[in-house]
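Input set for joint prediction.
Command: fold jointly, output tokens.
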Amino acid sequence: MPGVTIRDVAARAGVSPATASRVLSGHPATSVLSRERVEQAVAELGFRPNAQARSLRSTRTSTIGLLISDVRNPFFADLAHAAEQQALELGLITLLANANESVEQQNRYLDVLLAQRVDGLILVPQGGDNANVEMLASSGLPAVFVDRVIDDIDLPSVTADNSSGMGEAVQHLAELGHRRIGYISGPRSASTGRERFAAFQAATLACGLEQDPELVVFGDFKAGSGAAGARQLLDLANAPTALIAADGLMTMGAVRVCQELGIRIGEDLSLVGYDDIDAFAIMRPALTLIAQDADEMGRTAVRLLHQVIAGEKPEPVVLPTRLMVRKSTGPAKTGENR
Amino acid sequence: MPGVTIRDVAARAGVSPATASRVLSGHPATSVLSRERVEQAVAELGFRPNAQARSLRSTRTSTIGLLISDVRNPFFADLAHAAEQQALELGLITLLANANESVEQQNRYLDVLLAQRVDGLILVPQGGDNANVEMLASSGLPAVFVDRVIDDIDLPSVTADNSSGMGEAVQHLAELGHRRIGYISGPRSASTGRERFAAFQAATLACGLEQDPELVVFGDFKAGSGAAGARQLLDLANAPTALIAADGLMTMGAVRVCQELGIRIGEDLSLVGYDDIDAFAIMRPALTLIAQDADEMGRTAVRLLHQVIAGEKPEPVVLPTRLMVRKSTGPAKTGENR
DNA sequence: CTGAAAGCGCTTACAG
DNA sequence: CTGAAAGCGCTTACAG
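tokens >
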């Protein structure tokens, strides 16, 4: 393939490069004879069109970028998988990029993806320096937000209702008699971090639970911060009887700490996780959690992007979240805290 | 950005496109004055170089492709993350593609990645139709295999020692008194599937365990097949007292089935998983497993590819695997099988 | 249905 | 240090 160009193909087929190009791109104005000859030449030469040159001319790549915040987070892995399958159905190829929960890295990939001239971009925006995202939005390149959103940037989006599932979770714990609920929050820089936290505060207020600021600790959506947060909350002189973590990885960290500390989840402490991850189903006790549909979110993002590419301006989509009650939540221990 | 080209920048800076290009690409032969002017023009215009055009001319993209077999498999997610970080350190940007354990999809992405003219490619090859991979190998594009390998294709590779960890696992179970070990194998189309299975057979033979073909079932490295396999093995009239699954996802499936069946892992049944996944550490009982270092594998793959790009021909690397004994394995139940 | 020609946006010897 | 010019590999009006 190296060095085989469309002129080689054309020469071998005895046609002009223009005709070869038409055959290759399925243009209707080609004769059967040309088609046969060109196709044979392509096969013989092992010709592989140079996408760079092609899209330089035609300005389409049939490729979309999907910039997620963390491949290692099962939620995003699921989302990416579903998005990619949906894209395939629409004839689009997905190039995945991993921001690794870092704005700097996000911005770097943003540059690359734009430079590669993807036809569109699906973005889980990081918080922080939005200059590049603003540039993206104003560049006219079809783009949509998924999962997270940046407030002042007007792009179609698919997000989850970060409020209802959280509300159900708090109410569930309140009904079990918990008064002091510890909260391991996502970062304030992410819309999901802010919204879930706001929902937590609103719900604890509505249920008349304690509003002690000590009960809230901020993490970064990674496991380490969930572990650190759990440790800090459980070390409190007046420790909470229940914990909610605001994403899957932080939940993992919290579970690990409980195990290290010998705390029996579901008995000594109630724990509500976030995201319906396989690992949470096989844990014993199985984890009560706030579920969102990662697959649907990924598929919807691609569909929205497809509409944007087609020139439409789709409305924002908000997907439901819901509490799945399993075995990690139980009645609050009255009297002493463990 | 749309429409802003290097000539616009040059015009605004009062220099030729050639000079603008030199400044942009850090060519030494530029005056301070030109540099300043061009940089200012770039900033004012929000110019973003077109990577397509650039690499069409220079034939380098500073981009590598990483084609993995399943994003949702934590092993590959970890590997991808580590590879990407290592690539960044070497100034390379990673475009991730997900074959989804399908040759067809792999081949499709292979086409795209080649068409995008990545500077190199890291590939977890699927089994089946190798035509495209052969083409890749003979195309001269720098490429390396990671995790899996295709026998007759001579490409540098980094793999794990699929034999030693498996050997330890079988021996461990034998020492606990297990005579009938069920094995949930990966597909024969993958080198890892074949090698682990061969190691299992060799080890059971060496330990003098039963060689009943009924004890082996073949899956596809996905959770569903692990579940189906476990169910089939546990339904046997003469069911095994221990199970080994050949990858992380199939292990997850097997665990799920045990739980559904009310089988107590570590007591009624010993279970050895594959891959050192977070979920397996927080399970109760914590899972005994065969661990390989996904991070190191990802990093090594990038390093090898980097060498290939530099014109070297690196030796294959084989990383160790090892048994981590935790709580899911115990003495074989004598007498009745549950 | 086909070909000659121009051009997509850059980079790079070649002169100076 | 700089510019004019050619060219990377395609595609696409424009004529015919």
